Amino acid sequence: MISVSHLTKRYRDFVAVDDVSFEVRKGEIVGFLGPNGAGKTTTMRILAGYLSATAGDVRVAGFDVRTDSLQVRRRIGYLPESVPLYPEMRVDEYLRYRAKIKRLPARRIRPMISEVKERCGLLAMGRHVIGRLSRGYRQRVGLADALIHDPELLILDEPTLGLDPNQNRHVRELIRSLAPRHTVLLCTHILPEVERTCKRLLIIKEGRIVAADTPENLKNQLGGGNRIRAQIKGPAKDVERELSALPHVQRFHLQPGTVWTDCLVETVREVDLRPNIFALTVRNGWELRELRLDNRSLEDVYIGLTRNGAAATEIQP
Amino acid sequence: MKVFWALLRREWASFFYSPIAYVVMFFFLVLMGLSFSLLLHVLSQGPATGGVMRLLLGESLFFWLAMIMVVPIMTMRLFAEEKKIGTIETLMTAPVSDVMVVLAKYAAALSVFAILWAPTSLYAIFLAQVSPASAPIDAAAMVTSYVGIAIVGAFYLSLGLLASAMTRNQAVAAVVTFVTLCILFFWGFMPYYTRSVPIQEFGRYTSSLLHMMEFSRGVLDTRPIVLYVSSTAFILFVTVKMVESRKWRR
User: Fold this and answer.
1) Who among A52, A70, A100 is closest to B6 (CB)?
2) Least CB–CB distance from A51: residue in B9, B97, B247
3) Where are the alpha helices (DSSP H) in chain A?
4) N or C terminus: which one in chain A shows less Cβ crowding within 10 Å?
5) A2-220 CATH fold
6) Is residue B156 a contact partner of residue B67, using CB atoms and an 8 Å limit?
7) Nearest-angstrom CA–CA distance, A50 and A194
């Protein structure tokens, strides 16, 4: 659906996007992550035909964005991060206008407006003036606009910004329901959202793609083993000795407190040491207050990849 | 064509939703009313020399004040507002070409300008009612006067549109347009002030003031028509390039 090869966008004094290549297949929901200013918005704007690339080849649905911009734009629903809307228009009026300029056939306009309003939770808002809507509703009007011409590809920049948790879940479900009929490129900073919604991730840093894989694979690349946290009441030195004797331990970290000792154990492979830890506390007559699996989150992956000077495998206790 | 129509209607709607439209119309009609009352005053002194329309339009200071004030206020928001609130991004990522957007905005400005002028045709009817003369206004002079207003106005509006496409600040767009139109207006006096024959000649060809005086006299000269139509086309072309420049500007 999207094929980007060696895309570069240079401004006067800096390179916003630097030799980026990636593919998005039809029906995929791909998360596009990166720190602010990493080149996400520039890349999306180039895909949507708002900016042109300095160099490189960008194709959407087989059309070159440079030479067939109108064909590309017909197939894209783009929601910019700032959700620009005309404040003086009413919701229905705005959606009708957008449907027309996006060349939706006249007979489909009315049913399509009802459909997107329903999907975005705007059914009661048709007569409201956009300028007086709350942030959450404005966001939904923007989303409805992106969907109005039933585009093959949706490019959504922070679609859940400013939504409350209920609306947030609603939009997440909406996005998930778009696949496989639609392809979605989703840009967001909310990592749990990405993990639940996207099949594949692209992580961009300083204009370059630093990772492109499924969330699971990315997490596995960062060590693979399990991470277990425990709180044990016992002499720190004895606890340390016992823990070091456990099998498959890659490394462990103790933080002695006044009474309880915090332990973090990392295993080489996906071995679950929780029964062993329980057993050793029982054997020594210690007390155990907490014992849980604390595996790496996508956040660790993201921070590892995008922090300045950070090695991808660095461990943070 | 349907898309063009949708764009045009949105421009109209946004113009008439805003209070600016009514303020512009109010002051425009005040100025033209002053011009008309001045005309009545002159006519009450005895028969006018050079024709009624010439007094009402071509030589009237109020007419020029109205042209120079109204155009910048009408055109300032066309692109600047879209840039300010960011809707230029949703507009330009919809499947509409830059040329179509520029033309739709221009057509909207031009049609509102025509609506602004429409009520002034009542002056002629009114004058015919109150005047003891059988035909106080030469119908042909009236037609050519409106032709003149249309083409001069079309050119001024294109300049305003270009200024609006160059900035995201409406006030800047209005001031740039206003100053440009003032320079063009005062340029119209050049033929009177210089002794240099080439400048006098050039001035005669390019002075809007002289052109309007001729049109309001009932003279339909093709030279200014060609000048304004081609200048307008050129300015609109530059505006399209200006709008496109977002793509490659550094």
Assistant:
1) A100
2) B247
3) 40-47, 69-74, 91-101, 106-119, 135-147, 165-178, 191-197, 215-221, 236-244, 274-284, 298-306
4) C
5) Rossmann fold (3.40.50)
6) yes
7) 25
